[in-house]
Amino acid sequence: MRNSRALEIAVGVFVALAVAAFLLLALQVSDLSSLGQTDGYTVSARFSNVGGLKVRSPVTMAGVRIGRVSAIRFDESAFEGVVEMRIDPRYTQLPADTSASILTSGLLGEQYVGLEPGGSLDSLEAGSQIEFTQSAFVLEKIIGQFLFSKASEGAE
Amino acid sequence: MINPLQMLGQRALDSLARLGRSALFSVRVAASVGPALMRPGLILSQIYSVGVLSLPIIVVAGLFVGMVLGLQGYTTLVDFGAEESLGSAVALTLVRELGPVVTGLLYAGRAGSALTAEIGLMKATEQLSGMEMMAVDPHRRVMAPRFLAGWLAMPLLACIFTAVGILGGYFIGVGLLGVDDGAFWSQMQASVDLREDVINGVLVKSIAFGLVANVIAIFEGNDAVPTSEGVSRATTRSVVNTSLAILGLDFVLTALMFGDL
């Protein structure tokens, strides 16, 4: 048996480890987390449908991740979804007329925001809003439109 | 014709008597819990031997279980282009089932067997009788501190196992196989609920398993035939019974928590 001081320290470390593990489970694994990157600048975009986009989903340009979705909220005056994206501070030269669309990786994969650069010489700054947006691809709507157009073709 | 019947009856009566003895023993230990709390030093040294000394096996096992889950989950999910869901798959598996259950099984092997052997040997070498001769109640001095320490250590070990396992899955999934970091955590956070999964899964299950595992381990030690063979049998029985009890109890708890029974 060790002396009691070493033993108490060992037990203290054990309990502290367990508390840290539980905090990890509570904050990082379950949905209590609000920890995110705090550097970078935020731009927003309005979509008529954000689909299955989630906070912390990737924001990409040319397939490379350049930021993350930091918040998604609903604007009741325009009935649109407002997506706020935190862009990595390394990328400061994104054109002001960049367009944003909500895309899906693979057929069943996660949804992400894809940015397409425009031709403007001005750059996006903190707080600016992306004007050109394309909403999420909703499979049911597309199938519905397809069936409808097929049916009207048949009627002609 | 009669002899097999007699053996069957004898075994049934034996089992019944053991069940009765274990119930009486549990009541006596439970009654000694209050006085045992007055001696935190005893509990502390037992937490050291069942908890702190179990840490290496718990951490290593958790890491490998998490890494295997990461690998297996990835190879299955990548066929559907859904490898982003790896985080939620690993986390839900560990938090709901594997965390508390594997911790319980490892605890039975690492700490439960040691408890049984220690108490069995104390009985075989007549230390327990010696305590009674000196008017020291072995239930208060030996059993209750061990029971309390084990019961306390189990949820702590389960939390550590689960957290290390998820980190193991993260190393494999994000570090090695290239799953997106943010999608890994965000999918996990979207599907794991603190009350439903973490509290219910890890904590409630491991508290229940800790109760059962320690009662069985201490009872088997106390009930051992006081010979070297008896102690070895008691140790085996302790590990086997604890494992079966944990797996059975896990099914009942899962059905109550997550099933719509």
Quick description:
Chain A is α/β, with parallel strands linked by helices and 156 residues long.
Reconstruct the topology from this structure.
The complex is a heterodimer of chains A (156) and B (261).
Chain A: H1 4-29, E1 41-47, E2 58-61, E3 64-75, E4 80-87, E5 99-104, E6 111-116, E7 129-130, E8 132-134, H2 139-155
Parallel strand pairs in A: 1-7, 2-6, 5-8
Antiparallel strand pairs in A: 1-4, 2-3, 3-4, 5-6
Chain B: H1 2-37, H2 40-50, H3 55-77, H4 86-124, H5 127-133, H6 138-176, H7 181-191, H8 194-222, H9 228-257
Question: Please, could you describe this protein's structure?
Answer:
The complex is a heterodimer of chains A (156) and B (261). Chain A is 28% helix and 31% strand. Chain A is an alpha/beta fold and 156 residues long. Chain A folds into 2 domains: 1-35; 41-143, no CATH class. Chain A has helices at 4-29, 139-155; strands at residues 41-47, 58-61, 64-75, 80-87, 99-104, 111-116, 129-130, 132-134. An 8-stranded mixed beta sheet of chain A has the order 7-1-4-3-2-6-5-8, with no helix packed on it. Chain A is elongated. Chain B has one domain. Chain B contains 9 helices and no strands. Chain B starts with a helix and ends with a helix. Classes of the chains: A alpha/beta (156), B mainly alpha (261).
Poorly predicted ranges of chain B: none
The neighbouring-strand order within the major sheet of chain A is 7-1-4-3-2-6-5-8
Mean pLDDT of chain A: 83
Tell me the domain tally of chain A: 2
- Number of H/I helices of chain A: 2
Spatial extent as radius of gyration of chain B: 21 Å
Q: What percent of the residues of chain B sit in helical stretches (DSSP H or I)? A: over 70%
Helix/strand order of chain A: HEEEEEEEEH
Which band does the percent of strand residues of chain B land in?
under 5%
Compute the number of strand runs of chain A: 8
Basic shape of chain A: elongated
